[in-house]
Amino acid sequence: MQQKNIPFSILELATISLGTTPGKTFKNSLDLAQKAEDLGYKRFWLAEHHNMISIASSATSVLIGYIAGGTKKISVGSGGIMLPNHSPLIVAEQFGTLGSLYPNRIDLGLGRAPGTDQVTAHAIRSDRMQAVHKFPDEIEEIQKYFSAKNSEGNVRAGVAEGVDVPIYILGSSTDSAHLAAKKGLPYVFASHFAPTQLFEALSIYYNNFQPSKFLQKPYTIACINVIAAETDNEAKIISTSLIRMMLGVLTGKIDYLQPPTEMTPDLQELSKNPAFERMLKYSFVGSKETVKHQTEDFIEKTGVNEIMVASHIFDHETRLNSFRIFSEIMQEL
Q1: In DSSP terms, which residues pair with 15 in a beta bridge?
Q2: What is the spatial distance between Cα 247 and Cα 264, in angstroms, rounded to a whole number?
Q3: Beta carbons within 8 Å of 312's beta carbon, 6+ residues apart
């Protein structure tokens, strides 16, 4: 049975379109967050990526501060901080500071993927692979730094102690589902680019969930891609930017987000490629009615508590329009 009043949120990568700058991209991100707040979106999360010319959300905690400072009530957070790239103490200090500046509005989503290629991951932190294996312990370390009881600890993050910053576990496979269930934390699945294990991961999380002081019953968020426009055809044309972007990801030739073009036979064929179809299985492209039907079906099949939307659209106003349409869809469902 489908749940009612499902919260809906945004995952922002601060994607840089051809011909624009990181500075302009950040202003557009803030404008989107301000509009999203008015449109009823619950959260605005920023993803950590590195060494990708088209993605500007690399200094994630800095951007979270910028977005939270320019909005009033929307929750702002990380989708996520890739913990093996960072020291748990520094993460606690940064997010404790954010949580003190913007009380009850900061979320800390934690993942273990690098958010980049292996060479760059090594440049970020040479002992990264050891940190990957310590992911569960490092989450506990962050929780310790946020605890008011850590006032007696030898190592303290004073700015974090007693500050309420909820932790979310991010995953794109089943590993993190086990971890989120065991720790009694909310679970967020990256079905917008890694949909293969979505249902298996959700099943593991629901069946193994152990209530904690943070969460009494399971809470799940799944991410989808949405490109909504006035007509199916218009949305398909807009989606050619996403198709080209994903081609760059798959071939290792990442470029700025390209302007949309007509849906050529080549692009049509590319979008039907098995690797593409696998990655973009939960990319809902079309008119309000089309996207509404696909979203309703997704919510019904997954039973998730919340939907998060990523949207790679070249033109800022067109992207705002897509998020406006999606807000209408979610309020009608």
Answers
A1: 55
A2: 15
A3: 13, 15, 225, 227, 241, 242, 245, 257
Give the residue from 216, 235, 230, 94 showing the smallest Cα distance to 159: 94
Residue pLDDT, tens place only, 292-332: 999 999 999 999 999 999 999 999 999 999 999 999 999 99
CB 163 within 8 A of CB 148: no
Domains of the chain by start residue, with CATH: 8-332 (3.20.20.30)
CB 227 within 8 A of CB 235: yes
Q: Are 229 and 325 in contact (CB under 8 A)?
A: yes
Residue 49 identity (one-letter amino acid): H
Count the helices and strands in the chain (H runs, E runs): 14, 9
End-to-end alpha-carbon separation of the chain, Å? Answer: 13
| Residues sharing a CB contact under 8 Å with residue 317, sequence separation 6 or more, in sequence order | none
Q: Which two tokens stand for residue 276?
A: 């593409």
CA nearest to 81, candidates 99, 57, 52 = 57
pLDDT in tens, 191-209: 998 899 999 999 999 999 9
Q: Burial-class residue 109 by CB neighbours within 10 Å (0-12, 13-18, 19+).
A: buried
Contact between 68 and 105 under an 8 Å Cβ cutoff? The reply is yes
Residue 16 tokens, joined: 């840089």
Please tell me whether residue 164 adopts helix, strand or coil conformation.
coil
